[in-house]
Write a structure and sequence with these properties.
single chain; alpha+beta; Beta-lactamase; Lipocalin; 22% strand; elongated
Length: 482
């Protein structure tokens, strides 16, 4: 009968780590924390090397912000740091909010997606050279398959003087369709602006008011607006143009998008957009913070128009792409010195939001790398069956952790990641793959380690046990004060 106590002890050893695992915040789980360290180093160097003014980024898992951080400056001259609460212009990410408003009104029985736009906007007409084509519908505006031109016939991207509603009503009938409705995808800011007009007509409130009361306030998006007032404008990141040959950047003056606002005028923060992303992963009937029922969210996220390449298509307001067996749902945005990216993988309940206050770097690059580096570790950390044994780290390795450089300025960093001592080399230009540049150091004896190429690396210590230099192959690198 001696086997019984052994069984009880084994059961306790098995269960205790699982209970502890459940209590540890995701961002503090070793595998997630290590991945965030890798991502953090990479973003830091990207921002520094490309001389980006500022960047804010957030990673969401289900209903929680796992991690959020700002890099660089919201305002370079004033040395105001970029943070997760920095307010940016969202550009075309605005479109998913306008689309959400349409779907909310649809669920309330106030409109139908296959209704002609003219049913709600009697003034809407446009020259149609395709006599046998069907009327333009709300669904087609949501999927950019209406055949409408990209813009209203006003040069607002040249002079930043955007049309009023009255001007929009006057100019649209003078324009002509560029494609037959329901035959091809053609991205249209004009089409999304018309959806904003439908929201206003059906709800009896302006587009911006509807978003404020029906979306932003219920979700706790207190730093978001379609028509930002003085308080949010004061918190807005300074928008910078392309970097010049001398390294300087001019500043964009703020311009309101007027009647094109439903396509581009929103301001927000990565923290607020994270709340909207969490909504996308929720289910159940509409009510309270569940402003859109789960089945409608899924309807918006699935493909309604397939690109000819079959690599993705358009949801209802969202762009959808298919890579590595997964659907990536989201939208990008640009407007005068601000670039934004919302990227979600609904089946994994993971989202990344990245926003820049500069024109010359894609925020999508940061979103993708954040997902590639951190996403797999989040999934491991949230699936108990994948819990692995924690590696045993020699406490003495902590002495080696830090930054080093050779006499000519090339930098290296020693870290502990995944239970291993690791060397990270800062390449220039920085690699666009956030996981590149890491080398695991294999213990040999004492302070000597072996690199994968079998070359040795020895940490040389002084009498106080501090590193004075590292013999790396046959050369040396030295501790830095950075």
């Amino acid at each position: 009968m001696r086997w019984k106590p052994i069984f009880v002890v084994a059961l306790m050893v098995t269960l205790v780590p699982l209970f502890l695992h459940a209590e540890i915040p995701l961002q503090e789980r070793p595998e997630v924390a290590d991945a965030l360290t890798v991502l953090d180093r990479w973003i830091e160097k990207q921002v520094e090397y490309h001389r980006l003014p500022g960047l804010s980024i957030a990673i969401v898992y289900d209903q929680d912000i796992v991690w959020a951080k700002g890099y660089g400056f919201s305002d370079v001259e004033g040395k105001i740091p970029a943070t997760p609460s920095t307010v940016y212009r969202m550009g075309s990410v605005t479109k998913v909010f306008t689309s959400s408003a349409i779907m909310m009104l649809r669920d309330q029985g106030k409109l139908r997606l296959d209704d002609p736009v003219s049913k709600y906007l009697p003034w809407f007409r446009i020259d149609n050279p395709f006599p046998d084509s069907p009327e333009i519908t709300i669904r087609q505006l949501l999927t950019h398959t209406s055949g409408l031109p990209r813009e209203a016939d006003v040069p607002y991207w040249t002079d930043h003087i955007f049309p009023t509603r009255e001007q929009l009503v006057k100019v649209v009938p003078t324009q002509e369709l560029v494609a037959e409705p329901a035959t091809t995808y053609h991205y249209s800011n004009l089409g999304m602006s018309l959806l904003g007009e439908v929201v206003a007509e059906v709800s009896g409130r302006s587009w911006a008011e509807y978003l404020q009361t029906e979306i932003f306030e219920p979700l706790g998006m207190s730093s978001s607006s379609g028509a930002p007032g003085e308080a949010l404008m004061k918190r807005r990141a300074t928008p910078y143009m392309l970097i010049g040959p001398d390294g300087a950047r001019d500043i964009f003056d703020y311009y309101d998008a007027g009647a094109i606002g439903p396509a581009a005028n929103m301001v927000s923060t990565v923290e607020d957009i994270a709340r909207f992303a969490s909504l996308q992963f929720s289910a159940g009937p509409a009510g309270g913070a569940q402003i859109i029922k789960g089945s409608t969210l899924h309807e918006m996220q699935r493909v309604h128009w397939v690109y000819p390449s079959f690599s993705g298509g358009r949801g209802l307001g969202f762009s959808v792409s298919h890579r590595d067996g997964k659907d990536f749902v989201g939208h990008g945005g640009w407007i005068g010195g601000n670039r934004s990216s919302l990227m979600m993988v609904p089946e994994e309940k993971i989202a990344v939001i990245a926003i820049l206050n500069a024109d010359d770097r894609s925020p999508g690059l940061f979103s993708r790398q954040a997902y590639e580096v951190v996403g797999p570790e989040l999934l491991k950390a949230t699936r108990p069956e994948t819990i692995a044994e924690k590696s045993v780290v020699d406490p003495a390795w902590q002495t080696f952790v830090g930054r080093y450089a050779d006499p000519w300025g090339w930098e290296y960093e020693i870290l502990i990641l995944g239970g291993n001592l690791v060397e990270f080399g800062y390449d220039y230009p920085p690699d666009e793959n956030a996981s590149a540049g890491y080398t695991i150091l294999i213990p040999v004896e004492g302070t000597t380690f072996r690199r994968p190429d079998n070359e040795r690396m020895t940490f040389e210590l002084d009498d106080d046990g501090k590193v004075v230099r590292i013999k790396r192959r046959n050369d040396y690198i030295f501790p830095t004060k950075r």
